Inverse folding.
């Protein structure tokens, strides 16, 4: 439907197109579910922009992590203040990435429609000069995997200052004992599910380190598009409506679990985010070549049994922490 609307549109001026893209981005950036749908719908219209599908599946993980905080076990392990701050960490990071990335996707769509590059308009959305250059390169060379990596590099730099290095999140989340324990036990893991009940993915370790997050994104891109599992991941995305609860995929797992986390939209209100009036271009002609280098892929990336084991660990840890907190 969205694609048909675009086909019927014509804009007389750049200003009209900019206003349309701004409005459309805001509408689709309301919450985790709207973002996930927007990414995945875009990808299935333009499969050459692989990052959009990667972003959609990672966004599903963000939603699952959000509702974990309101689920049975995290309520035992963490107090309300910590859980609220963790939610805002996920929400703020994903809102910022979408606000930066979705105008890029729409400008690509209109460039294809008009059969001419419109990437000079990206500066109107405060998109990094790095990505303006990368989109112009893609338009000429159509290097699909190179663009995926460029968008991964960009997204992680976009959140580095406003989220990772923000004094509130830095002090109470990324340097907290709870976060270090969570990383040690690998509870923070990005998984791609299948309709066969299997999970594939990689753990997030040293999440506050920019290069580590970029490496994780590149591993996930490899897993999605080069591991031979692409058809299984797309079948899941096309079949399973994203609700923000892990039961989206736990329903298909061989060992049946009851739903222990709520639906996202029955749990969290839509958040009104303050704009960063002092947003700066993260790219200052620094050397980005190091982030384009190939990475090592771990031999083990099926996590089905591992996930069940870690869930059991989480349950035990949560009961222990509740016991200690209550004296």
């Amino acid at each position: 439907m969205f694609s048909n609307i675009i086909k019927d549109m014509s804009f007389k001026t750049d200003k009209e197109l900019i206003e349309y893209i701004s409005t459309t981005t805001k509408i689709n950036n309301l919450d985790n579910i709207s973002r996930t749908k927007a990414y995945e719908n875009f990808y299935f219209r333009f499969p050459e922009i692989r990052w959009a599908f990667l972003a959609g599946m990672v966004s599903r993980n963000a939603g699952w992590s959000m509702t974990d905080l309101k689920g049975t076990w995290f309520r035992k392990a963490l107090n309300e203040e910590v859980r609220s701050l963790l939610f805002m960490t996920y929400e703020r990071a994903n809102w910022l990435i979408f606000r930066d990335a979705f105008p890029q996707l729409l400008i690509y769509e209109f460039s294809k429609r008009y059969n001419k590059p419109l990437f000079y308009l990206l500066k109107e959305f405060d998109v990094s000069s790095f990505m303006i250059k990368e989109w112009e390169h893609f338009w000429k060379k159509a290097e699909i995997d190179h663009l995926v990596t460029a968008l991964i590099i960009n997204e992680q730099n976009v959140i580095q200052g406003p989220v990772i290095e923000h004094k509130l999140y830095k002090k109470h989340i990324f340097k907290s004992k709870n976060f270090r324990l969570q990383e040690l036990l690998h509870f923070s893991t990005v998984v791609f599910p299948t309709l066969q009940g299997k999970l594939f993915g990689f753990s997030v370790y040293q999440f506050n380190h920019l290069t580590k997050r970029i490496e994780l994104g590149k591993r996930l891109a490899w897993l999605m598009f080069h591991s031979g599992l692409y058809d299984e991941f797309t079948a899941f995305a096309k079949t399973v409506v994203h609700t923000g609860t892990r039961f989206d995929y736990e329903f298909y797992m061989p060992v049946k679990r009851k739903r222990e986390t709520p639906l996202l939209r029955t749990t969290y209100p839509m958040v009104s985010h303050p704009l960063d009036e002092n947003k700066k271009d993260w790219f200052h002609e620094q050397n980005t070549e190091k982030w384009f280098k190939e990475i090592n892929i771990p031999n083990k990336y099926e996590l089905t049994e591992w996930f069940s084991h870690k869930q059991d660990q989480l349950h035990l840890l949560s009961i222990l922490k509740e016991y200690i907190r209550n004296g």
